[in-house]
């Protein structure tokens, strides 16, 4: 029966073909370490801890159980309290992820919203712009609209609906007269003089 390969042995084999920077980048970005709930700055030292903790030779557990045990050991060593998001069964696989408190998450969202709002105010101040200009313009336009509407309502109340409908413009471009000859212009001038006299 071949001897199981431990994590230090894998480090020894990988060191021949992979340098330290690429190995550190791989472990810091490893998807297996993301559900644990640790920030990226703590994933690298966590990935170096398995070099001193090899899995048992008699029965090697699944990788998730092994990584969970390493994470708990790292949290105990660093003084960090970590919660188990799910329990791995005998057939393998895990359920759930990192557990967070809903109240703390809502507080975090509120703090993030306040932070973004503060950043927007700083940027607008740097650009010498006021975020309330749009609201002020809307208020002015709304005030003009209400003034005109009040005038129309008072006119309609005084004269009735038929008056407003009767004074509406009724220009039709098809009824416009176009004079393209001197005789037509002379006739129009004569009509103007006739109506001026009477």
TrEMBL record:
This is Fatty acid synthase type I helical domain-containing protein. Residues 12-25 have a biased composition (Polar residues). Keywords: Transferase. Gene3D superfamilies: 6.10.250.1930, NAD(P)-binding Rossmann-like Domain (3.40.50.720). The keyword RNA-binding does not apply. InterPro entries: FASI_helical, Fungal_FAS. It holds the Pfam family FAS_I_H. Residues 110-198 form the Fatty acid synthase type I helical domain. GO terms for molecular function: transferase activity. Residues 1-25 are annotated as: Disordered. The lineage of its organism: Eukaryota, Fungi, Dikarya, Basidiomycota, Pucciniomycotina. It comes from Puccinia coronata f. sp. avenae.
């Amino acid at each position: 029966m071949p001897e199981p390969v431990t994590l230090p042995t894998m480090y020894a084999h990988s060191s021949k073909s992979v340098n330290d920077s690429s190995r550190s980048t791989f472990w810091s970005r490893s998807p297996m370490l993301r559900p644990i709930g640790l920030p990226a700055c703590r994933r690298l030292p966590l990935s170096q801890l398995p070099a001193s903790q090899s899995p048992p030779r008699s029965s090697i557990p699944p990788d998730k159980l092994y990584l969970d045990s390493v994470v708990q050991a790292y949290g105990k060593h660093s003084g960090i309290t970590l919660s188990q998001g799910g329990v791995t069964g005998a057939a393998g696989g895990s359920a759930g992820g990192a557990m967070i408190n809903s109240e703390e998450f809502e507080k975090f969202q509120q703090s993030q919203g306040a932070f973004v709002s503060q950043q927007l105010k700083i940027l607008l101040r740097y650009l010498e712009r006021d975020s309330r200009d749009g609201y002020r313009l809307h208020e002015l336009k709304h005030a003009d609209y209400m003034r005109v509407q009040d005038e129309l309502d008072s006119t309609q109340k005084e004269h009735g609906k038929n008056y407003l409908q009767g004074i509406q413009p009724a220009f039709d471009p098809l009824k416009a007269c176009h004079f393209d000859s001197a005789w037509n212009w002379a006739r129009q001038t004569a009509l103007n003089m006739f109506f001026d006299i009477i």
